[in-house]
Amino acid sequence: MKTIIVGGGQAGLALSYFLTKQAHEHVVLERAAQAGSAWRDRWDSFTFVTPNNMTELPGLKSPGDPDGYLARDEIVAYFEQYARTFDLPVRYNVRMTAVEPAAAGYRVHVADGTTLEAENVVIATGLFQRPKIPVCGAKLPDDIVQLHSMHYRNPENLPSGAVLVVGSGQSGCQIAEELYQSGRQVYLAVSVMARVPRRYRGYDAFYWADKIGMLDRTPDKLPSPKAKFAGNPQVSGAHGGHNLNLHQFARDGVTLLGHVQDVRDGKLILAPDLRDSLTKTDQLEAQFLKAVDNYIEAHQPGLPTEDVPQLRDAYDQPEMLALDLQAAGIHSVVWATGFAFDYNLVKLPVTDDDGFPITQRGVTAYPGLYFIGMPYLFKQKSGLVGGVGEDAEYLAAHIIASRAG
To answer: Is the CB of residue 187 less than 8 Å from the CB of residue 331?
Structure first.
């Protein structure tokens, strides 16, 4: 075998598309039974944040309104259609356990005891590898149901009573919004997270993010190496797309909290950083709007101006240092705390101290070993459905040229 791609999500499929076009022998190994498993496992109302015209894999237009947003089942159907349309060599229900050097390249071990060998191996296992739950979760009272956001489905999926959502990125805010709009009392533990309006001056926020260069940022343009792990801005594609704003949440009755630091005797111990987080989030939105305005002035003069409402409601909420879970009536906790990388599959020293792959645009120091599908492997958009194609085309060319494919 010339090339094995480990993972059949957006990155693996996009790379397979370019290798197939070049008649390069390869196989995509996917541990799930169907395409799009990472998206298939999302909650019932999950909707992409990027508009359809920016959510396309190479060679196949996204279905529906170009300015709309794909819902979960539409996303899955698109991935399935993609694999069928280009007759990509995907094998499902194949769980890999190890990738190690071999005489002719690499050996891939499979859970059923079989092994495969290839000149090249590409790790395309995606963003959502291992749910992160803080260690203090183990201290929660036994009668509280707790689950990670990847296991949340809908409000009826949770026991009656108030809900604590931990994490104010896109997932946490979207889940919290759905819960309180269903009539639940919601407590939301927040952190510093960027916020952008869904649309501004006639265009989607992601249109502007692309125009001002945010999506093309490379790691060297970030303030620190850890900045590449920042969550995506608060915004939603659900129900046709709309703003997410913690001040609106407060106006609607959500109780906002600072960081969860610990759990002691049935009480959450909270950091006194709520107002600081709110302030920084407000500032990040202002910076985004200013950058867009500057771009418009230079490149698209004449667009109508727009004033984005500056809400302040969340600043009126008291800064809580502890929360008695029983007294608050909280019977469930949703951990919207992201995912951890896990590349233990690769039996070579290929990650840095943060667990992130060490590469030059996805190419490791080990000939024939590659990574694809993570933000900032090359650019910020390297982890997006609509951005991974650029990396896939580059790696396909590298594979074919360097190994005489």
So the answer is: no
Q: Which one, of 116, 96, 107, 125, lies nearest residue 8 by Cα?
A: 125
Task: Kindly compute the dihedral angle of the four CA atoms of residues 362, 365, 367, 368, in this order, to the nearest 10 degrees.
Answer: -30
260-271 per-position pLDDT tens digit:
999 999 999 999
Residue 26 near residue 400 (C-beta atoms within 8 A): no
Q: Is the pLDDT of residue 352 over 50?
A: yes
Neighbour count for residue 95 (Cβ, 10 Å): 12
Task: Sketch out the chain's domains with CATH numbers.
Answer: 3-129+341-402 (3.50.50.60), 133-335 (3.50.50.60)
Which of 339, 7, 325 has its CA nearest to residue 149? 339
Give the separation between CA 387 and CA 379, rounded to whole angstroms: 9
Residue 194 one-letter amino acid = A
Which amino acid is present at 136?
C
Question: Which segments of 191-297 are extended strands (E)?
Answer: 199-200, 203-204, 255-257, 260-264, 267-270
CA distances from 14 to 21, 28, 338 (A): 11, 11, 24
pLDDT for residue 405 is more than 50: no
Residue 231's pLDDT band (cuts 50, 70, 90):
confident
Alpha-helix residue ranges (DSSP H) falling in 306-360 = none
Q: Which positions ≥6 away from 16 have C-beta within 8 Å?
A: 5, 26, 28, 86, 88, 89, 90
C-alpha to C-alpha distance for 148 and 129, rounded to whole angstroms: 13
Cβ burial of 404 (10 Å; 0-12, 13-18, 19+) is exposed
Secondary structure element (H or E) that encloses residue 109, with its range: strand 105-110
Alpha-carbon distance 365 to 374, whole Å? Answer: 18
Q: What's the rounded Cα separation, in Å, for the pair 160 and 184?
A: 8
